[in-house]
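Please check this:
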Amino acid sequence: MKHLAAAALVLLTALAPGARAADSTPVFVLNSLDATVSVIDPATWQETRRIPTGKEPHHLYLTPDEKSLIIANALGDSLTFIDPRSAEVQRVVRGVVDPYQLRFSPDMKWFVTAANRLNHIDIYRWDGSNMQLAKRVSTARTPSHLWIDSKSKTIYSTMQDSDELVAIDLPTQTIKWRTKTGPMPADVFGTPDDRWVLIGLTGGDGVEVYDVSGKEPVFLRKIKTGDGAHAFRAAGDGRHVFVSNRVANTISKIDYQNLQVAQSWPAPGGPDCMDVSTDGKTLMVTSRWARKLTLIDLENKKPTRQIAVGKSPHGVWTLDHAPRQ
């Protein structure tokens, strides 16, 4: 009977919200004010170790060949490459100026970084393993987040302190247009058809939507989500995107076909960056003010667990995730 009870307990644990297979790849959380990366085992949801990085790691991105996870160390002027499966450091690339945000173009030819404190965007050619600076584009004050359209033609970047959205033509590496936004625009998300761009207003209480299908952007509407709307993560179903409302301590799920809020969940501790489990049932969100990674059960609409990490956790990512659109 004891053996049967133990087996039942194992089964229940495996099926519990947020549980993951023992062979799952690690979850990575960037601790911006500790200059470390927390490595979390998704089988036990325990932090297994912390990896030193350069100063202020904020965001991270996978290389096109999926062999390296790149950590952008803004104040360290460096990039740390980590194996996304083993969590071993592969190399450190220095001399990359103020890489706050980063993104590869869908055609995998370009690597782009936003220099948050220095007011420029750097566009690098990518040869599959190394980068070469092609152009430094001066922008307005405090470029924050980046999005590149599906055709690898346009870079969209928010300007956090001048309240603007800037579009850069990627082939010519020149600014196409700029438009005023609401207060403190942060993350930017483009719909898969490249028609609409969504902007999270950290200084406001919602998301602005722009039609970017023509030569000039057209403001469509504002979707009220909650105070401090900040970061986006596609739900993986081709129709919805999550936005973290950092001040309101909530997560909103936006239907980007009808541009309305479909659902909302509580998310304590200043929710910031997010990732979604492969089955689409668990949302992983960094609780920036609480020094925690919070797991949210999307079916029961509530947090189920918090894992202690370092100071000011920001980016979160795992190789085992739902599609990003």
